[in-house]
Amino acid sequence: MSTHEQLASHLAAAWTYGRWQVDELVERGQDAFGRRYRWLRPLAQRLVSALGGKRRPSRRRVLDFLRQDAGFRRVRRQQDLRPTGLQRRRPEMVPTDGPPAGWDIPPLVTPGELADWLAIRPEELAWFADQRQRERTLPPGPLRHYRYYWLSKRLAGSARLVEAPKRRLKAIQRRVLQEILDRIPPHPAAHGFRAGRSIVGFVAPHAGRPVALKIDLRDFFPTIGRPRVVALFRTAGYPEDVAQALASLCTNVVPADVWERFPQYGDARDRWRHEDLVRRPHLPQGAPTSPALANLCSYRLDCRLAGLARSVDGQYTRYADDLLFSGPDALARSLPRFQATVGAIISEEGFRLNGRKTRIMHQGSRQTAAGLVFNQHANMARDEYDRLKAILHNCVLHGPASQNRAAHPDFRAYLEGRVGFIESVNPARGQRLRSRLQQIVWPKT
């Protein structure tokens, strides 16, 4: 490594921590070289002008800037600069300006503190975080952090990969979820994976609107890569090393041998799309942290789409990868342009649109989303209600065994769940079904 590279790396490390302000960068530069050189302030000003923002840039971006800065190279040729041993100040939490400053999250400023907080040793943190992506090359067995399952999506002619973390990693992820992620509020338009929210709240704002537009995102979890997750933790205020470790604990890279078990019903394009996504660090579908991280990493997408909906006096809500818009007749007249703008925003935010599932629903036809009808108010579809009512009626007359045509292993629990769901959507209808359910005579076990 050349002398210039050594000095640039030394200064980049000194400028990684602390608040991203010119005065503080000058002080940290003084700590790095043991003297307040006159050229430090202009260099810091150029750096903030080029990379400045609400969130500190990564060490790599700072280093790349210093490598290319002509002024720093000229100073290096003119002066005999010698580092003083890189006496870093203690790192600190530096959230972005605004709401993050009020998030009640644990202040973890070094990987050692993160390991202590998780009640594991530093070497265990490095093992579970797997920042070197060893999971990609490990053979099947106990050394892997995840178990992998393929689920069929036969109606869509594709497949879904479930990446289930093993016991110890899942316990770590649950603590990150409960004590960090659950304390960071997602956008109000997000209704999936949130306590106190449901599909009823997802569709209710769109009831009675002349036109509704339903759009689906493809490969929602795998599309969100590790850099986005790192950016989220840095926005919360965590230093780069801690943000990288937290993001690595919550993301995964799928081993190559998993693709040898790719189901036969998935076509070649489906296989290539999956492989392109999950061979890089991504949110694993099956980890307890993934739903909350998906919501939080979609915050900017939700902001832009909610603003677009407001511009036409419309409404916007999202339930996981389902996007729902509604509006007045003015929206109906401009739907092609509105739909194109939505697609552009989705693409710009790094997500993928599933064009086959896009639906335009007018008031004169049935408007449905997430299994509910919302033409006038959120409700179960009448045919679904009648079908369940008939099943319960026949169970009372002929016994439950005669109606378990799908061979549910616990038919009673299945019916309890269906009735409970209808109660949450329409309490009056649900109570009528509940009374019929209580009349069923179940065989003694």
Structural description of this entry:
The strands form three sheets. Strands 4-5-3-6 form a four-stranded antiparallel sheet. Strands 7-8-9 form a three-stranded antiparallel sheet. A hairpin with a 2-residue loop joins strand 4 and strand 5. It is of the alpha+beta class and 445 residues long. The mean pLDDT is 87. It has helices spanning 3-14, 22-33, 40-51, 59-68, 70-78, 111-117, 122-129, 167-179, 199-203, 220-223, 226-235, 240-250, 268-278, 290-297, 299-311, 329-333, 335-348, 382-398, 411-425, 427-437, and strands at residues 146-153, 158-165, 211-218, 315-319, 322-327, 352-362, 368-369, 372-373, 379-380. Helices cover 47% and strands 12% of the residues.
List keywords for this structure.
20 helices; elongated; 445 residues; three-stranded antiparallel beta sheet; alpha+beta; four-stranded antiparallel beta sheet
Strand order of the largest sheet: 4-5-3-6
Number of helical runs? 20
Write down how many β-strands occur, each being a DSSP E stretch of 2 or more residues.
9
In terms of per-residue confidence, which ranges show pLDDT below 50 for 5 or more consecutive residues?
A: none
Strand content: 5-15%
User: Gap between N and C termini, in Å?
Assistant: 75 Å
Mean pLDDT equals 87
Largest sheet: 4 strands, antiparallel
Class of secondary structure makeup: alpha+beta
Query: What is the CA-based Rg, rounded?
Result: 27 Å
Topology as H/E string?
HHHHHHHEEHHEHHHHHHEEHHEEEEHHH
Shape annotation: elongated
User: What is the helix content?
Assistant: 40-55%
Secondary structure layout plus pairing:
Layout: H1 3-14, H2 22-33, H3 40-51, H4 59-68, H5 70-78, H6 111-117, H7 122-129, E1 146-153, E2 158-165, H8 167-179, H9 199-203, E3 211-218, H10 220-223, H11 226-235, H12 240-250, H13 268-278, H14 290-297, H15 299-311, E4 315-319, E5 322-327, H16 329-333, H17 335-348, E6 352-362, E7 368-369, E8 372-373, E9 379-380, H18 382-398, H19 411-425, H20 427-437
Antiparallel strand pairs: 1-2, 3-5, 3-6, 4-5, 7-8, 8-9
